[in-house]
Write the structure tokens for this entry.
Amino acid sequence: MIVRQFLHWLRTAPPCERAEATSALARAYLYSDLTENDRAAAEGAMIMLLDDPSPLVRQALAEAFASSEAAPPTIVHALASDQPDVASPLLERSPLFLDTDLIDACASGDAARQVAIAGRSHLPCSVTAAIAEVGCAEACLVVLENPNAELVPFSLDRIVARYGHLAVIRAALLTRDDLSAPTRQALVAKLSQTLADFVASREWLSGDRAQKITKEACEKATVTVAAGSDSGELRPLIRHLRDSGQLTSGLVLRALLCGNLAMFEEALSELTGMSLPRVVGIVHDRKGFGFHAIYDKAGLPASAYPLFREALIAMREDGFMSEHGDATKLKRRIIERVLTSCESAALDDVEPLLTLLRRYDAEAAREEARMFCEDLVADAAVSPFGEDDRAPVHYYEEEEQAAA
């Protein structure tokens, strides 16, 4: 019997030749017309090869059975428990594993196994959830880049929470079309904290200064995320901000001063527990009835009430209430009106708020100047001459004649 001869030969053959012979035996088992007895003998020989001291032999067996549905399950599962180099081809391609098998392999904590599973041609959400929960950063990255992986929002949030500080993970997440507004904002917050820690560790800025700058940048980005989100995503975003402690009076004021009324109204609705239509009615009431009461119910600081009140009055009078323009940038005209109205108030409680407003005013002024300069450069790129200053054709003809 050929299997008996094979077993005798194995005792003296070097590892490389044993690996080649093992691969040939596995292919014969899968694709040759073996008798029942030969098939049983071949399977027994391969089970014995699971104890071969050379990983080359076991790797050859794993590669041969990796993609086959006809592979012996006993051998496949035994190889999957072998060292990572042996197990990885099977974990990545074998159709014989149940979801629970893959989840258990992920829970082992071995990075190579997790990466192999993350690259499978089909990954149900139960397995991707396990990788998101306990997988290494590389496995999570492979899952994010795997077009055949089913990722639910909860799993994406876990990846953000665990590895959102890594640039390569953030880049992979931000390219996804299924990323929710709360998840995008969580990525922004992770980036802000990472930058603050980096700057402080290099001692380029003090820790407090770095935290203050990145916090303002995070709030600015949060308003941008809200402005670009669908109406159905705004309430989950506001809830996420509240649960994470980011729904501060400064953020709510920034949203209002940017003209992002939808975010402002959703925030008041979430903080007060009142229905959104009722909040919208109070905010848009030209006489301002009820706003003080809803403001107090929201738990916003009493000292900041004059700023919110004057901002709403200015928005009504300047027509911002019905304007549907850019809701991501601070409106300098509104800020200046609020500043003018509040500067005459008692300075005890308002002075810190005026400092905040002046900082907002400076930010808005810089943004206006930047946009103005960009427009000038764009106009100059279209034509080096003004519409009325364009040189006539005969000017060039006279120059050419003079040069001749």
